[in-house]
Amino acid sequence: MPLQLRRGNVKPPDNNSVEKKIKRGNAQRQGSWFRRLRGWLLLGLLLGLLLLSAGLAWFYSNSDDDITEVWVRQSHLLQEKKFFEVPCSEDYENYQRYPGCTPQKCGRAVTDTVVTREEAERMRRIAERGLALGGSDGGASILDLHSGALSRGQHFVNIYRYFGDQIKDVFSEEDFQLYRTMRQRIQEAVARTFGLDVSRLYLTKPTFFSRMNGTEAKTAHDEYWHPHIDKVTYGSFDYTSLLYLSDYGSDFGGGRFVFMDGVANRTVEPRSGRVSFFSSGSENLHRVEKVRWGTRFAITVSFTCDPAHAITDPALP
Ligand SMILES: *[C@@H]1O[C@H](CO)[C@@H](O)[C@H](O)[C@H]1NC(C)=O
Ligand SMILES: *[C@@H]1O[C@H](CO)[C@@H](O)[C@H](O)[C@H]1NC(C)=O
């Protein structure tokens, strides 16, 4: 259109040389117009290719994978507790209700301010020393200082019976004191978060240290990665907590905790000193990813509202 107008403006052509100049001018303008068009087309094509490859990459990374959201990252030191409320499942209705304890509010929390990294390291050393006395042939070993259960080969032994008085060379009074302090602080955090009477919440079994690595499972006890509901697995559980004793990404790979919410899988990346706790019903269906490399240490501390299922803190015999 602008070309037409310009041409119209210089009409009528009464001079040959003038006409040639105009034609040359038009040709040049047309040339630069085409060059620009070609430039835009190329750019468009490149952008299109870029979008297409990004789309394909997204499609392939998601087609056989799930929707996974990182809820709490290892590298993120939480200054404040993170809480996510989930409506309570009906699981609790099959049990007696204990006022001031039975979940009225359900959900999950993560905090990095209840246990220090130094305390977590001391706890990990307790686990390392104890587990060095045994260890599963498969990838998952446990040590329960309450019952004395320790994975050994494809079975369990009772360290208090098996090692007798010698266990005092392995664990000290300070170790048990630290254990009690950690348990008490976690219990207070659970009570505060869910609005409970802390004295109506009881430690229950199993409460144990775990050590996991990439060795193939030998027995069902080694298969920690199956989705499960704590209240279904252990009827007495009302609140489950985990204290992580090693770091995802530097001490081990895989091994993230996953809340399976139907709409998404939401992960908690373990961090030494991080405490994660949640109401134990179906509202918190979860699993632990297989550990791919390194060693993952944690301690599971479980609570019940039912005094009949209460256990006492562990103590040296
Ligand atoms: C969550 O992960 C499981 C496997 O671990 C998968 O079967 C499921 O589809 C995932 N859920 C979503 C919403 O991606
Ligand atoms: C897992 O730990 C055990 C005991 O320390 C060790 O024998 C085994 O080689 C480890 N496996 C891997 C894959 O690191």
TrEMBL record:
A Gene Ontology molecular function term of the record: oxidoreductase activity, acting on paired donors, with incorporation or reduction of molecular oxygen
SMART domains xrefs: P4Hc
Gene Ontology CC: membrane
Transmembrane segment boundaries: 39-60
Cofactor (UniProt): L-ascorbate
Family annotation (Gene3D superfamilies): q2cbj1_9rhob like domain
Signal peptide: none
Record domain Fe2OG dioxygenase: where: 205-306
NADP in keyword set: no
InterPro entries in the cross-refs: OGFOD3, Oxoglu/Fe-dep_dioxygenase_dom, Pro_4_hyd_alph, Pro_4_hyd_alph_FE2OG_OXY
Keyword terms of this UniProt record: Dioxygenase, Iron, Membrane, Metal-binding, Oxidoreductase, Receptor, Transmembrane, Transmembrane helix
PROSITE patterns reported for this sequence: FE2OG_OXY
PANTHER family: 2-OXOGLUTARATE AND IRON-DEPENDENT OXYGENASE DOMAIN-CONTAINING PROTEIN 3, PROLYL HYDROXYLASE-RELATED
Protein name, per record: Urotensin-2 receptor 2
Protein source organism: Acipenser oxyrinchus oxyrinchus
